[in-house]
Amino acid sequence: MKHKPGEEWQEVQALRRKGASAREFWEFLFRSPAHLCRYQQAPSIGSVTVGMWQLFLKPPWETFFARWEANATETSAETSCWEILKTFPEQLYREALIHLHELFDTVSEEQEIQCCIPALLEAVQNSTLLVQIVAVQALRESQNHSPEIYPQLLPLLKSPDGTLRHLALRALEAFAPQYPSLITEILPLVRDPNTQVREEAIQALSLFPKASEQVLPILQKNLEQGIDYPYLQSIAVLALGNLKIATPAIISHLKLIVQGTFNQALRRDAVYALEKLDQKSNALLLFFRDLLNDSDLEVRRYAAMALRKKGTSSTPAIPALLNAFQDPEDEIRREIAPTLGKIKDKRAVPLLIKALDDTNAIVRRNAAKALGYIGKESIDAVPELLRKIADTDEYFLMNIVESLQRIGADPSQIKSAINTRQHIPETRDQLTVLLKNSNPELRIYASWALGYGNALTEKEISLLITALIDEHRYVRRNATWTLGNFGSQAKSAIPALIAQLNDENIDVLRNAARALGNIGDPREEVTSALWNIHYQVDKHFRFWIAIALCKLKNRLFRMIPTVQDALEDEDYYYVRKNAAEVLGSLGKLARKAVPQLQKALQDSSPEVRRQASLALAQITGEAPKRSEFL
Fold first, then answer.
1. pTM exceeds 0.90 for this model
2. Sequence-ordered list of residues with C-beta below 8 angstroms from that of 297, at least 6 positions apart, any chain
3. Is the distance from CB of 266 to CB of 257 less than 8 angstroms?
């Protein structure tokens, strides 16, 4: 029987409404010609779990269904499907495990994975190497740290196959906090003949800070002897940084790497490690200061970050930082602006005011933020900050308002400036005309101004879609932001917004992800595009991708931890606020975030505190306390 697009999902809904049995669902699913009814679109179909869904993806469906129908009951469907699966040929069994491994990217609840663990543990003992390898990969991807998994994986560290040893070690690393004795199994692997195993073992040593007497000599040896194998040396460098145990010999050798090697990647790793080792002292402050003049951009950037983490202790580095703030590279100015803010030295105020006009949007935002951190000493910046409220960059505005409040500006002046900014004298018809004007400044303004109102017309949506490929990045940035403001009304813009996930400008990418999340259409092409870009952006922007996928209720098992981490973002209160808002919208699915949300009740921002309180109420079902809103 032929199905039109979307009919499968409509039939699933109809089956749900009539209270169909698991058998009726499976009869339909196995005979559906298309795979529109994937697990993430129908997460609660009777007793059907991820352990059964993966069987739907590969033939012979008829054979499986006949066996399942003959043997399974609705109460034991999960067990039965695995028993039947094991009677299939080895190749099909392996394929099913592979698809199960892939499906872990789509699940939302731990219980949906838990039902697969027994089958995976059994597969680990299989006599076929490929089945063992896939099963170990799936166990690692499951992020399940149940006690019964550890003893099953441990013997695999002595497998004759290097790939299996490597994968087993990666899976076991998650158990390091529970089983400190694991160090005794890992130590011999630093001399493993397999390069991947050796690298992974050296990296894993940083997970055992209490075993420093055993670990440090091995890492230091690799540090000194790894010159013929720089990547191994680099792993040892990063492991030493993660251990955060500084000895004079280690500090000296790392400094020597920074000053005397031609391997730029290794030099960067050494600076990164030194920053971690020097967190509790200022012994390397002048060393980091001098690195601000290094020829390598990344070394300069890491040096600025190291000085930022030292806060006011970095005051002696202020002259060098002010000089470096005029670096032609955007990435350096982006890092130095918040560093100046954390040091809180008023000598930085004039340059930070000047940076409010920087050509790079993130430099401007960070400069505004830094002026707020300096506080009342930035009072001379108030007039310029008030003028900049008229800028069309929403994120710039958030930082300006927060900084004006920190500095102690007159609240009535702030309110007046915001009201003036939001006043749009032109009619919307005039704005659509401006959107086609040859003057980029007018297009930038129009693409932003259309974002205010109750609805978008089809004509406005069409013009905004065209603006998504405008030659000027600020037009593209504003167009994606405006479309995101109107949610499902902008559904016709989905293909164009997906294309913008590959835009060279990171602000456009972020706004496109935000828009796709706000539109709320969980179709496969949307979620796949977001998931694919998730691995191509840095940690800060990955958060916005995670927000979008959470709004689409897709890949929650992967995305919720990313959103949880954003609750501790040090730089932007609105990141913490958005994270709390999204976690609250997920209800009980976000229950693991409760401790971090409780911590957020003490946040310096009242908006974050309020949102965290509401989120806790949505997750736990308990009414928020009035005191939490103050």
1. no
2. 329, 331, 332
3. yes
